[in-house]
Amino acid sequence: MKGSRHTKIVELIGKYQIETQEELAEYLNQAGFHVTQATVSRDIRDLKLTKVPAANGRQRYAVLQGDTDAMAEKYVRIFRDGFSSMDMAQNILVIKTAAGMAMAVAAALDAMHFSEIVGCIAGDDTIMCAVRTVDDTIVLIEKLKKLLEES
Length: 151
What we know:
The strands form two sheets. A four-stranded antiparallel beta sheet has the order 3-4-6-5. β5 and β6 (126-131) form a beta hairpin. It has 151 residues and is an alpha+beta fold. Helix content is 50%, strand content 23%. The chain contains six helices and six strands. It is elongated. α1 crosses α5 (102-111), α2 (21-30) crosses α3 (37-47) and α4 (69-82) packs antiparallel against α5.
């Protein structure tokens, strides 16, 4: 439950400009996660979220950018939890996810900084990754398969 809640939090803060713990708790409750402000506070600490300037001049939550092993592990876990399948079409990698997980998985892929990926577009359960070349797409597929196989 905690893992799926963390995945949902990453998705929500990527989709909405969430400014407060109470606002995040409200979004989580609407998504079917019955949480208190104290739970949200612990989740923010566990995920190492930080506040960054928002477009409206206020602050919003964001995933702390860093290359620590703990953060990398969280991104891999989000990828594994949401992943369903993948297929390539030339230099486009299409990744299918569990319903509602595409944004979180795309954010995790972006955070992992694969040099082959130019950018990702996510819907509800599908991600389209623009990859530099057809050869890079094949390399990327192998890297992602290895992530899925590791335990």
